[in-house]
Amino acid sequence: DVKVTQSSRYLVKRTGEKVFLECVQDMDHENMFWYRQDPGLGLRLIYFSYDVKMKEKGDIPEGYSVSREKKERFSLILESASTNQTSMYLCASSGMGESYNEQFFGPGTRLTVL
Amino acid sequence: DAKTTQPTSMDCAEGRAANLPCNHSTISGNEYVYWYRQIHSQGPQYIIHGLKNNETNEMASLIITEDRKSSTLILPHATLRDTAVYYCIVRGLAAAGNKLTFGGGTRVLVKP
User: Fold this and answer.
1) Which residues contact A61 (CB under 8 A, 6 or more apart)?
2) Distance from B46 to chain A by nearest Cα, in Å?
């Protein structure tokens, strides 16, 4: 069974803390994505990566950075957490070609920044 | 991406087929129709996709009209676990960088 796993389901952090969200996929997918989901705003793309060490900004990259040192792992970093980064964070991965849009999502991390 | 229109919500009886419509009248020739769903408090789940022909997998069937301006997702025997928001998305085969855009979707409630 294919899997995208995220390091935590729930996380509570304080304003100003550095936060690491980890995502691992076991499907040998080239593409990995980080989204956030907020009520009424749908899914918004933060960053994505189409290869190891490659990254591209999505729609809302401000306040975030990413790291992809290995193909199976894509990390989202909040350099200095703020309350407006309280959200559900979703990681996804996909293959190439026609399967590019078959994105497999992790269970999500609900982050609360106090 | 072509815009899609779905009903806001629908109810379905457990064990019956659920037919979820989607209109995509501005779809272009190289765009696929994708269906995802999101069960409460979980990440979205890919269901099925198609270009022109009808498709079936272990989860659902996808019926695309001949003019491709609309489609229907069919859950053949709905169960309570199928209660979710279902999203219809139209997208071309993208170069690296394009994101999935989920619209409002259809909130499906399967009732006993």
Assistant:
1) A46, A47
2) 6
Render pLDDT for A7-30 as a digit per residue (tens, 0 to 9).
999 999 999 999 999 999 999 999
Q: Which residues of B touch A35 (CB under 8 A)?
A: 99
- Cα–Cα distance for residue pair B107/B49, rounded to 1 Å: 19
B39: which chain A residues are within 8 Å (Cβ-Cβ)? none
A27 in reach of chain B (CB within 8 A): no
Residues on chain B touching A21 (C-beta within 8 angstroms): none
Q: d(Cα B28, Cα A85) in Å, to the nearest integer?
A: 36
- The CB-side HSE value for A12 (13 A sphere, CA atoms) comes to 1
Scanning the structure block, which residue is given the tokens 């709905």? B78
Segment B3-11 mean pLDDT: 93
Q: Are B76 and B17 in contact (CB under 8 A)?
A: yes
Question: Which comes out higher in pLDDT, residue B101 or A112?
Answer: A112
List % helix, strand, coil for chain A (3-state, nearest 5).
Answer: 5, 55, 40
